[in-house]
C-alpha cells in the first residue's frame, strides 16, 4: 500500500472535522429555532396543528372550560371612556365590553384571570384584555384575580381596547392557561 504524500492525510482529517462541526452547528441552530417557535407560538400552534378546540357557544348560552361555566350575556363595542368623573380611562381605539357570569362547577377553588380571556376580530386579529380598564369597569365587583369557590358565581366585565373600525367577533375564554378554551361567537 502506498501512503499519501505528507500533509494530505492531515488535510482530509481537517476537512472531515470541519464538515462534522458544520453539521453540529446547523443542528444546534435548528433546535434553537424550534425552541424559540415553541416559546413564542407553542399553545396557539399546537391547537392549530391538532385542531384541539374547546366547545363553541353563542352569546347568551352557557359553556364550560375546565372548572368554569361561562355565560357571556352581551358584548358592547364603541365605548370611548370607562370610569367616572374622578377616575377614568380613555380608549386608544374603542373599548369593547364583554359582560359575563362565571360559575365554578368544579370541586376546588379556581382563580379567574382576565389576562387569559382572548378576543378576536372578524379577520382573526387577536386582542388582549385591558386590565386597567377592566378594574374601572368592575369597580363594585370582585372579578379579577378572585378565587371562586365551588358552586359560587360572579358577574363582571372583561374590557378590550381594539381599533375603532373593528369589533369582537369571537371570544376564547379559559379557566387556566392549560385548558382548551371555550369559544363564544358574537
From TrEMBL:
The chain crosses the membrane at residues 15-39. Pfam families: DUF4352. Gene3D superfamilies: 2.60.40.1240. It comes from Phytohabitans houttuyneae. Keywords: Membrane, Signal, Transmembrane, Transmembrane helix. Residues 58-176 form the DUF4352 domain. This is DUF4352 domain-containing protein. It comes from the Bacteria.
Amino acid at each position: 500500500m502506498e501512503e499519501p504524500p505528507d500533509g494530505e492525510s492531515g488535510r482530509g482529517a481537517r476537512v472531515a472535522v470541519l464538515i462534522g462541526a458544520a453539521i453540529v452547528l446547523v443542528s444546534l441552530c435548528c433546535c434553537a429555532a424550534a425552541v424559540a417557535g415553541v416559546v413564542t407560538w407553542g399553545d396557539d400552534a399546537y391547537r392549530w396543528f391538532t385542531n384541539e378546540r374547546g366547545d363553541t357557544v353563542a352569546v347568551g348560552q352557557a359553556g364550560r372550560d375546565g372548572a368554569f361555566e361561562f355565560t357571556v350575556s352581551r358584548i358592547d363595542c364603541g365605548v370611548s371612556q370607562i370610569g367616572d368623573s374622578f377616575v377614568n380611562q380613555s380608549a386608544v381605539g374603542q373599548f369593547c365590553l364583554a359582560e359575563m357570569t362565571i360559575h365554578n362547577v368544579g370541586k376546588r377553588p379556581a382563580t379567574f384571570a382576565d389576562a387569559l380571556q382572548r378576543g378576536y376580530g372578524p379577520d382573526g386579529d387577536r386582542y388582549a384584555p385591558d386590565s386597567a380598564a377592566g378594574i374601572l369597569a368592575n369597580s363594585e365587583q370582585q372579578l379579577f384575580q378572585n378565587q371562586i369557590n365551588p358552586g359560587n358565581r360572579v358577574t363582571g366585565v372583561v374590557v378590550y381596547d381594539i381599533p375603532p373600525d373593528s369589533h369582537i367577533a369571537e371570544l376564547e375564554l379559559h379557566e387556566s392557561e392549560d385548558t382548551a378554551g371555550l369559544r363564544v361567537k358574537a
